[in-house]
Structures are given as structure tokens and as C-alpha cells.
């Protein structure tokens, strides 16, 4: 029997975290991909298709791409491996309000007879999951207990914010979020919606005219929430760097740039930009 000090703490993320496969290997993470349906074919996000190819296909297709959650079996396979190795696992799942991924992980945990698996509904997506994972990696490096790490992440996730400006309403229309007529009018008027992740859900936080105004509004949202610089700050982009570069030029902060992958990209399209950060208490 291993002692508490000898049990290794590992982390599991799904592909909504937008880590590359190289990053997954380098950080020694367990990984479960969501599926993306593109023109009748299913791809494993980040495995069968990379982010660049995904956006290129999206821009050249008239169809709306769809995502689907991993099955409980995909989590169970990893949980059984963790049990065999007598590791401790913290699973950081895409928000339960955006996907059934969290439910699949919980079902798998119910099937494996092993208590050292902790599943966290991050109530966020994309760089929000990455941020929590990076903090967890640091805490593991500080030899914190798994109970301390889990409780710390549960508290921290309530302070993770994402604000993003969209370049077009087209993909919201394809997903049935708004009418195609409204999307066409928005394009003519150069209207740029601002979205945020609020308590696990994506909501429209406002609309502006033009990219320059949209980047300013995103900056104003950050200032109103007061950024806690003890934690990483990420700027976000989907496809194309022009808009995120405009945003970064207005920020007086050290930031890391993170790409928005396929899982969220399905709904926001290319040329989206944004920020992810932790607010002060």
C-alpha cells in the first residue's frame, strides 16, 4: 500500500481545454477528446483534426459543424488505468452547462471502484480550463494535498472570467442562436457581439459597432472585474491574429496568447478574440 506522500496526483482535461497534443505530453496530462461532426464525418478533436484545419474547413463549408461529448467508456478506460497505477486523479471538465462531458465523467466514476478520482465541473471552457489546469500543476509542484488542490480549484473557478468579441454573427445563426436575417443585418451594420462565460453558460454581454470599439469594451469589462495578477492572464483568438493583436495593444498586462479550439470555435467562428483571467476577491 502506497502512503499519501507516494501517491502521484495526475490531471485529466478534455479537448475543450485547447491544449495541443505536444502540450498534453509535455505536461503529462491525461486527455479525452470531444467529437466534431464535419460534413457527415466524425473527428476526434485535437487527434484526427488540428485547429488550423478545422477553421479552414469551417470557412469553406456551408454546413454547421456539431460537437458531441465523450462517452463514459472513454473516461472509464483512463480511470481504470489510474486505479491500476494507484494514482490520484483530478479531472477538469468542460462546463456541464455547455456539454454532457461532465456527466460522462461522473458516470464513469460510478463504474470504477476507486475513491482517488475527483471530478471538477469547471463551469468554464477553453483558456478557462487551461488556467485552472496550470494553477493545479503549480499546486501539485508545491506538494499540496489533493483535498487542498480540489477545494482551491472549486473556489477559484468562481472567479474565472472570459470575455470575447466575435467578428461575425454567421456561426451563431448557423447554430440557431439568432436568425439568419439578424445575422445579415448585423454584418451590414458592422455589429460585433461581445459574449462572456457566466456561471458556466455563454451569454451575450453586449453589442458594439466595429472591431476597435469591441476591443475597448472587452478591456472595460476586464477593468470592472479587477484582474488578479497572481494568476495567468490569457488573450484568446480563433483564426486570424489581427483582432487579438488590436486587443493586446490596449492591455497594460503581461499576457499569454491561447488559441480557441474546435469545441468552442464551432459556435464563434474565425477572427474571434478575447481575454481570460481571474478576478480579485
From TrEMBL:
Pfam family, one: DegV
UniProt keyword annotation of Nucleotide-binding present: no
Entry-linked InterPro entries: DegV, DegV_C, DegV_domain_contain
GO molecular function annotation: lipid binding
Keywords noted in UniProt: Lipid-binding
Source species, domain of life: Bacteria
Gene3D superfamilies, per the entry: 3.30.1180.10, 3.40.50.10170
Protein name in the entry: DegV family protein
Native organism: Holdemanella biformis
Amino acid at each position: 500500500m502506497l502512503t499519501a506522500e507516494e501517491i502521484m496526483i495526475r490531471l485529466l482535461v478534455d479537448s475543450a481545454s485547447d491544449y495541443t497534443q505536444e502540450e498534453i505530453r509535455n505536461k503529462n496530462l491525461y486527455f479525452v477528446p470531444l467529437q466534431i461532426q464535419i460534413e457527415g464525418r466524425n473527428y476526434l478533436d485535437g487527434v484526427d483534426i488540428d485547429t488550423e484545419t478545422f477553421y479552414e474547413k469551417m470557412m469553406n463549408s456551408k454546413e454547421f459543424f456539431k460537437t458531441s461529448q465523450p462517452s463514459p467508456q472513454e473516461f472509464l478506460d483512463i480511470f481504470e488505468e489510474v486505479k491500476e497505477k494507484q494514482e490520484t486523479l483530478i479531472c477538469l471538465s468542460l462546463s456541464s452547462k455547455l456539454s454532457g462531458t461532465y456527466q460522462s465523467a461522473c458516470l464513469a466514476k460510478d463504474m470504477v471502484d476507486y475513491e482517488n478520482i475527483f471530478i471538477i465541473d469547471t463551469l468554464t471552457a477553453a483558456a478557462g480550463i487551461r488556467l485552472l489546469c496550470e494553477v493545479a500543476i503549480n499546486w501539485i509542484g508545491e506538494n499540496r494535498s489533493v483535498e487542498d488542490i480540489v477545494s482551491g480549484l472549486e473556489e477559484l473557478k468562481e472567479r474565472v472570467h472570459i470575455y470575447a468579441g466575435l467578428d461575425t454573427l454567421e456561426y451563431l445563426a448557423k447554430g440557431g442562436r439568432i436568425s439568419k436575417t439578424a445575422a445579415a443585418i448585423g454584418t451590414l451594420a458592422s455589429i460585433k457581439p461581445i459574449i462572456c462565460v457566466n456561471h458556466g453558460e455563454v451569454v451575450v454581454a453586449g453589442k458594439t459597432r466595429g472591431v476597435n470599439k469591441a476591443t475597448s469594451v472587452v478591456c472595460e469589462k476586464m477593468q470592472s472585474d479587477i484582474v488578479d495578477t497572481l494568476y495567468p492572464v490569457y488573450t484568446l483568438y480563433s483564426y486570424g491574429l489581427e483582432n487579438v493583436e488590436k486587443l493586446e495593444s490596449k492591455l497594460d498586462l503581461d499576457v499569454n496568447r491561447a488559441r480557441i479550439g474546435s469545441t468552442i470555435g464551432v459556435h464563434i467562428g474565425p477572427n474571434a478574440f478575447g481575454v481570460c483571467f481571474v478576478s480579485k476577491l
